[in-house]
């Protein structure tokens, strides 16, 4: 019965713009599970100090989706589909150390957290952005470029390539290295890494709307190289698979 229902669902894939709905349905039925094994397992990851070992349940993505969809929305213009072929691994845990800066919006410091991180950069600044129109952000990055910071930015293709309000183009003209990502339906990350040891992330898009009107959050982990390094590895993967800004 499960197999018959799975075939029916698979036949309706073109109807859905978001393949995640199909994912969750088939996962509930156990279709993506490896035979004879569970999708949950104990995974050990070492904390920052290296003295503590954390045990936690983690989803084995490789066991859940054994084959990829034939759904063009996953390609989104890039037939190499690099995002689908990224190495699969579980979540990791790090100990929080140093200073953590927090902010919320509307108008409760979320964008201030972001700007503080940009302003602190002296050597490198790596940015992943989905919606990307905030002028405060633009001005802070331009100032970083002018003081000699090596700035790299990856943005979502759909939200930025044909958007006259996107600050990706002006930042490229100002000297930042900008690339766009189109190997997945969305590049929905929002994070800023300064000097490879401080990282800001959260729900906050880099837009005036997110800063002034939406309920959002932003967090910066200051001088925490293991956490920043983990974000940096994600950034490097996207950077290598992205396209130069036109």
TrEMBL record:
UniProt xrefs under SUPFAM superfamilies: Phospholipase D/nuclease
Organism: Paraburkholderia humisilvae
Signal peptide: 1-19
The name this protein goes by in its record: phospholipase D
Disordered: annotated segments: 36-82
Any one Gene Ontology molecular-function term assigned to this protein's record: phospholipase D activity
Compositionally biased spans, kind Polar residues: 68-79
Record's compositionally biased regions (Basic and acidic residues): 52-63
EC number: 3.1.4.4
UniProt cross-references to Pfam families, sorted A to Z: PLDc_2
Enzyme class: hydrolase
The reaction(s) this protein catalyses: a 1,2-diacyl-sn-glycero-3-phosphocholine + H2O = a 1,2-diacyl-sn-glycero-3-phosphate + choline + H(+)
Classification via InterPro entries: PLD-like_dom, PLD_domain, PLipase_D/transphosphatidylase
Keyword check for Flavoprotein: no
A biological-process GO annotation: phosphorus metabolic process
Family to which this protein belongs: Belongs to the phospholipase D family.
Domain PLD phosphodiesterase: 183-210
Keywords of this entry: Hydrolase, Lipid degradation, Lipid metabolism, Signal
Repeat found in the keyword field: no
């Amino acid at each position: 019965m499960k197999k018959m229902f799975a075939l029916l669902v698979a036949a309706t894939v073109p109807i859905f713009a978001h393949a995640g709905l199909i994912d969750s349905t088939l996962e509930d039925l156990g279709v993506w599970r490896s035979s004879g094994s569970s999708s949950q397992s104990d995974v050990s990851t070492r904390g920052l100090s290296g003295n503590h070992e954390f045990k936690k349940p983690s989803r084995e993505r490789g066991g859940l989706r054994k084959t990829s969809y034939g759904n063009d929305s996953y390609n989104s213009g890039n037939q190499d589909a690099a995002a689908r072929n990224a190495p699969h691994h579980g979540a990791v845990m790090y100990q929080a150390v140093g200073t953590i800066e927090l902010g919320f919006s509307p108008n409760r410091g979320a964008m201030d957290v972001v700007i503080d991180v940009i302003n602190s950069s002296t050597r490198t600044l790596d940015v992943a952005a989905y919606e990307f129109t905030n002028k405060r952000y633009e001005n802070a990055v331009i100032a970083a470029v002018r003081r000699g910071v090596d700035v790299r930015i990856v943005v979502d293709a759909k939200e930025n390539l044909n958007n006259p309000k996107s600050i990706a183009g002006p930042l490229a003209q100002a000297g930042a290295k900008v690339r766009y990502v189109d190997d997945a339906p969305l590049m929905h990350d929002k994070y800023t890494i300064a000097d490879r040891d401080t990282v800001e992330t959260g729900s906050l898009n880099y837009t005036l709307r997110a800063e002034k009107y939406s309920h959002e959050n932003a967090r910066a982990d200051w001088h925490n190289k293991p956490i920043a390094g983990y974000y940096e590895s994600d950034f490097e993967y996207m950077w290598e698979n992205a396209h130069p800004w036109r």
